[in-house]
Amino acid sequence: MKTTKPAADGLLSSAKLWTLTFAPLCWAAHFLASYLTSAIYCAKYAPADGDGLPIRIAVALFTVIALSLIAWIGGIGLRAHHMGETKLPHDDNTSRSEQRFLGFATLLLSLLSGVAILFTALVFVIMETCH
Amino acid sequence: MNDQARRLLEAWRTPKGWRYWSAVNNSEVGLWYTITAFAFLLLGGLLALVMRIQLAMPDNDFLTAEQYNQVFTMHGSVMMFLFAVPILEAISILLLPEMMGARDLPFPRLSAYGFWSFLIGGVFVCGSLFFGAGPRGGWFMYPPMTTQYQNDVGADIWLLGLSFIEIASIAAAVELIVGVLKCRPPGMRLNLIPLYAWYILVVAVMILFAFPPLIAGDLLMELERALDWPFFDATRGGDPMLWQHLFWIFGHPEVYIVFLPSIALVAMIVPTFARTPMVGYGWIVLAAVGTGFLSFGLWVHHMFTTGLPGITIGIFSAASEAVAIPTGMQIFCFIATLLVGRVTKSVCLLFVLAGLATFIIGGLTGVMVAIAPFDYQAHDTYFIVGHLHYVLVGGTIFPIVAGFYYFYPLVTGKLLSERLGTIAFWLMMIGFHVCFFPMHITGLIGMPRRVYTYPAGMGFDNLNLIASIGAFVLAGGFAVFLWDLLRPKGKQSAAPRNVWNAGTLEWLAEVPDQPWGVRSIPIIESRYPLWDQANFVRDVDEGNFYLADAEEGLRETLVTSTVEATPIQCLRVPGPTFLTLWAAIFTGGVFIFGTFHWYFAASASGGLAFLTILVWLWTGTAIIPEKPQKDVGLGLTLPTYVSGPDAVGWWAMFITMLGDMTAFMSLVFGYFFYWTVHEEFPPADAEGPGVLWPMISLVAALAAWGLMLLSRRLNDRENAMLFYISTIASIALACLAVGSLVGGPWLHEMDPTVHVYQASVCVLILWTVVHLLVGVVMQLYCIARRAAGKMTHRFNADIINVTLYWHFMVLTTGITALTIALFPLVA
């Protein structure tokens, strides 16, 4: 049986479709964690004046973790995007070009997810209480 | 035509006469789907005109309040559930295989089943209007109005009729995800996929996670209406807010679910008319994937005025602003492509530009209402009606009309008229803006939505009259467009092949088109192979690529690997059958009879649906091939049967179960939601299921799952006797799990109508029990397949997929048991 599977090519040949979703998943986790923490805290545990210090600390922590993960994922994307000499639009019919494309899209999604996380975090910078 | 081509044609021939309706091929099913969805668009449009007649004058009595409520509810429901979502599935089923050079999608019968379900459900829901029995709770059916104040059958029709259609949508989503991931032509790597396929992949995944929460919500509401389980009844601990959460977790992604496929059409049309590849391919993929994710973080912006904590509102307001970033990026890419290209004028492009301009206006008013203080003022006013129509007509309908002009020659071989198209365009464009722009002003000066009339002298009169005039001009545009679609074209010469000189694979279609899709499945080296690959069309036509023949007379297409699109299987796809039609009729019976509480008829219909689906599976899936592998051309030999993660069936099971788990998690979310809104949950005096029985069910389910893993291994070792023993033991344990799950509430005399706590425990148990029983049926099926010689150690797709189902089952039972047994101890 003839096999047409190409040989492993370059250091990021293991990059898969899933890698695209890692950065937005970090956003989703951060978003859900921030929302659920604040919703549960405000509904069940907040003092009468709605002081939000505990959730602000928690969200600060979530943000540091999420942004660190995204920076790491974005770094992988950036290295894949720059692999070799070829420039955009990464539309060659080669495994390398595909990896560069995936790297580039991962990088862009990391940037978008990072910005969206900062949007969420900003709410906790501005708002001091549940209300 | 040579012998090879003749054999291929014979295999893919469309059935004739009355058997035509047994066709399952994407070209037929996609066409029926498109026509049906378009018919529902026209119906929804007529309902809109009726509303505009009523609102043209103050104190008008053209409609009664009751009729108006039915009409606006049906307008919204028809447009969203029977047009916007189905048309995307329709166009995708019709065109996606062509864009990927595939002969068909991997599960043609599933597409046909989805179509028939959609047709039956749609006719049922719409038909209610003609008997004065239509739903009248608005397209989002808020309780307690729909649970306590509307006791007629209308809300049940909406809940059950549309749930049925939602299941069809999930079926289409499974089909499209597996299609994009596994049925691309060799060489079509992820960086070479047509942008349409990227968008559809994202949208189908969104459907998978967005529709199940609504199905869960429908289940809860129907249980309240039919059995008095008080999920939304505040006097018994329920909370209508849960419905709003579940509805909008579906409802906001839904906006993007209908927008992205339409914008995907734009992504196909723009490069063709700009005569250049799309600028910023990677940025558009970013936009599609990014929007897909962020759209799940916006749902609460529909609930800003419900009294949620300010910080929650802040989070969702911020996310609603953030989604404008990826949404805007793709529009910049389209504009950039048009700027760098050599644009040729056409009606298609006019509609694309109108769509983009209109959508941008709707997007900007969207950013306005994402800001909570502004939303407090605009909420439930005509400002929102104006905003959402700018988004949906600009983002969905105009691009779809552009798509009709663009793809009409591909499907019918005839061009639509540029002259009529230009007239239709200006009528639609002017009519639309005259109709909907004044609504922003009417809303800002205070006119609420969903009122059947208004008194004179409040400043609404002229604006409403102008809007009504605009609506009729818009309808005039649609009438011209409809005439252009339907007018006889017998004397009109056929359109040339690839009439727009496009670069993507669907334009390989011959005029008149052949049922085989493509003459041979090509090797792809470029994003625009028709522009870039030398002698490409000739090589495809001469059968110089893969599967140019159908020596066994079977319908075949290639399955390729997910990332690099390396061929891994020659997939035999099933041919025409009436089974899917019958299955849809019987499944429809369950929902339709259930609506009227005719439970005997519903059960009988359910039994017939079950048997039909069983026959369909038994005769049409995991068929042992006459030879294990075959030469597909160019010296490549591929297996004809694969199982596990290489197989399309495994992916379908996996994807379906992801959707299923999402619905289940929505019910679990409900349980915890009630915990957050109550001081004490479970209430101190409420009977629970106890700890013992749920724990027994958990242990039994774990053991049943373990034995299924063992059964799979025993089957692989051809140890038939032990396989049967192990599987039967697994069935017994699954039944024990079912019994003990039911035993907990039974022995503790829990009454689900007393309080929402009991109801939320019982609904989790109900869900789990039904799923365990389905799991038992699957186990019995494996035993029967093995006994009938249809499942062996080599041909083991059935048991591998059933084991995959059981992975999810053990997870479901575990979450249910731990939640209902242990959470009360820590709460």
**Overall morphology of chain B:** globular
Gyration radius of chain B (Cα, Å) is 27 Å
What would the average pLDDT of chain B be, to the nearest integer? 94
* Large-scale geometry of chain A: rod-shaped
- Measured between the Cα atoms of the first and last residue of chain B, the distance is 74 Å
Q: Quote the beta fraction of chain B.
A: under 5%
How many individual β-strands of chain A?
A: 0
Largest interface, with counts of residues having CB < 8 Å to the other chain, equals: A-B, 55 and 51 residues
Q: How would you describe the oligomerization state of the chains in this entry? A: heterodimer
CATH architecture of the domain at 675-826 in chain B: Up-down Bundle
CATH superfamily of the domain at 675-826 in chain B: Cytochrome c oxidase, subunit III, four-helix bundle
User: What pattern of helices and strands is seen along the backbone of chain B?
Assistant: HHHHHHHHHHHHHHHHHHEEHHEEHHHHH
Summarize the structure.
The complex is a heterodimer of chains A (131) and B (827). Chain A is mainly α.
Description:
The complex is a heterodimer of chains A (131) and B (827). Chain A has a domain of 71 residues. With 131 residues, chain A is mainly α. The longest helix of chain A is centred in the C-terminal third of the chain and has 32 residues. Chain A starts with 18 loop residues before the first helix and ends in a 5-residue tail after the last helix. Chain B is mainly α and 827 residues long. Chain B is 67% helix and 2% strand. The mean pLDDT of chain B is 94. Chains A and B meet through helix 1 and helix 3 of A and helix 9, helix 10 and strand 4 of B.
Q: Which key terms come to mind for this protein?
A:
heterodimer, A: 131 residues, mainly alpha, disordered N terminus, B: 827 residues, two-stranded antiparallel sheet
